[in-house]
Amino acid sequence: MQPPRIRAFADGNYLLEFDTLASTQDEARERVLAGEERLVGVRADYQEQGRGRRGASWYAPRGECLLITYLLPVADASARVQAMLSMAAAVAVADGIAALTSVEPRLRWPNDVLMGSRKLAGVLIELIRAPSERQPDRHVAAVGIGLNVNVPSWSGHLANEAISLRQATGRRWSIEIVEAAVRTALIDTQRHIAGTDREWLHRRWMSRDATVGLRYIVGTPRGIVSGIARRITVHGELVIVTDAGDEIVTVSGHHTR
Fold it and tell me: In the chain, which ranges are E strands?
């Protein structure tokens, strides 16, 4: 593996950029556990084993997508914190894109960024316990983002399911400029959620929501059920109504057609 390019920032933090990695998530986790406290992110031009939620593979042609894992400090590793971060990251991606371009992405719970009904970006959140001498109970969130930037077209089933920023706007974009826009929006979002401003995050999500009315599959103590999304709570939970009329509140599940 070639050594990474180091992008240093004025505050002493830095971002690592690789030509090829197995996974930005795995590289970021290993470096956090090795004690790299100033590392804010790991980006790759290409991932050999990129993955999304529920272990799904993530197709990304070399050099055409933003493939990055940001590292954010978090208070704890609870499921509620993970759900909130998942929403926050999706909001940041959508806001960053909107600030840079003329498009207004929509959001589908738990963390899909859409143009129309097609997926523009996805988010993967992993929480890492990484104690240090100064912070024995330190936790870090690895916020993986896969954003389709300059992919000109898709084949097979992806032709109806995926979209790139290039397709949405009719022009190519610098990956570095897109990354800076997403990072700026993520920093702004982090300021709000660090103060546990759930109301702000909920308002930002709902202004772009494309979830309500869609069908979801969720797990319950009594088995897997499906239902129609009714609302999203201020804590980032999804509320569905099953075909039997029961209301279920969940922090995990996935959209189905």
Answer: 5-8, 14-21, 39-47, 65-74, 106-108, 112-115, 118-129, 139-148, 215-220, 223-232, 238-242, 247-250, 254-256
Please, which residues bridge with residue 104 across strands? none
Looking at the structure, tell me whether residues 35 and 112 fall in a common domain: yes
Could you tell me if 178 and 102 lie in one domain? yes
Which CATH number do you get for residue 234?
A: 2.30.30.100
CA 189, CA 132: separation in Å to the nearest integer? 26
| CA–CA separation, 207 and 202 (whole Å) | 9
- Pair 241, 202 in one domain: no
Give the pLDDT confidence score for residue 80 in this predicted structure: 76
* pLDDT for 134 beyond 90: no
- Please state the domain count of the chain: 2
